[in-house]
Design a protein that fits this description.
- The chain is α/β, with parallel strands linked by helices.
- It has 2 domains: about 5-150 and about 220-270, Rossmann fold; about 155-220.
- The protein has helices at about 5-10, 15-25, 30-40, 55-60, 75-85, 90, 125-140, 155-160, 220-230; strands at about 45-50, 65-70, 95-100, 110-115, 140-150, 165-170, 180-190, 195-205, 210-220, 235-240, 255-260.
- The strands form 2 sheets. The protein has a 7-stranded mixed sheet with strand order 3-2-1-4-5-11-10, sandwiched between helices.
- A hairpin with a 4-residue loop joins β7 (about 180-190) and β8.
- α3 (about 30-40) packs across α4.
């Protein structure tokens, strides 16, 4: 995959923050999980990949301070707009910062760092993963915890015919009010372990109008993920198969990870 294609696969899906918020408005199980975890482990919380603030707002509603970092300006602007609707007590608990999770340094440490909703699947190369985990270590207090989730690789999905376009129904975009025929196309590169999904939107009233949004996800296999965390100074305490903390099974949709800072690992944060 070219660097341009990788960049588009990382950013294109997140430029339309209104559609993003619409598409995932019913996704609440992960929000509850991270907010519960923040209550259990205490704040303040650092969220890497805050997006539109779905998780950060709920944590703040629980009375816990959150610093949210995201690279996409469009997502942060939408997060600010959504936050403005909250009571002042909630607004005052959330700080939003623009930055790249591979190199951001805030100068503070947290008892809990989180990276929800497949953020790490946009780290396509080993050096990107290592830099992101260095960021996690740099911001964790001693005995601090890191929580994240990524999709469980699905063999059937990865083996889909790249020449086939899958019909996914019709959607209405809240931004322009128009109806779109929604389709998806999948391509998987087993060498890079990156799956690219083309999100295809065709105007239902003008079929000549077509928009294709690429979304690229780096696949992490369970043993590989544990090893990456281990060799980057983080010890897995649990890997669950869902946000209710159920066991990881071969048909689980997600890998939900809770890790802690390994003893003496903070000395490696400058590497």
């Amino acid at each position: 995959m070219s660097r341009h294609r990788q960049s588009e696969g990382t950013e294109a899906h997140y430029r339309d923050a209104v559609y993003y918020e619409q598409a995932y408005r019913r996704r609440r199980h992960d929000v509850r999980f991270y907010a519960d975890l923040a209550e259990e482990l205490g704040g303040p919380v650092l969220e890497l990949g805050v997006g539109t603030g779905r998780v950060a707002r709920e944590i703040a509603r629980r009375g816990i301070d959150v610093v949210g970092v995201d690279l996409m300006r469009e997502m942060l602007e939408h997060a600010e707009a959504r936050l403005a609707r909250e009571p002042r007590a909630v607004r005052d608990r959330v700080e939003l910062r623009r930055g790249d999770l591979r190199d951001v340094r805030l100068g503070g440490r947290f008892p809990l760092v989180i990276s929800p909703f497949n953020v790490f699947m946009h780290l396509y190369e080993l050096r990107d993963v290592e830099r992101a985990l260095a960021t996690v270590r740099a911001h964790l207090r001693p005995r601090g915890h890191f929580a994240m989730d990524v999709l469980m690789p699905d063999a059937a999905s990865l083996a889909r015919d790249p020449d086939r376009i899958y019909r996914c129904g019709t959607i209405r975009h809240t931004g322009d009010g128009r109806r779109y025929l929604y389709r998806e196309r999948f391509r998987y590169d087993p060498v890079t372990q990156v799956q690219t999904i083309d999100l295809i939107f065709q105007d239902a009233e003008d079929l000549g109008k077509l928009k294709v949004t690429p979304l690229a996800h780096r696949q992490f296999f369970p043993a590989e993920l544990r090893a990456l965390l281990h060799y980057n100074g983080l010890l897995c305490e649990a890997v669950w198969g869902d946000f209710d903390r159920g066991a990881l099974e071969d048909d689980s949709e997600s890998q939900v990870v809770l890790a802690r800072l390994a003893p003496h690992s903070r000395k490696r944060t400058s590497q």
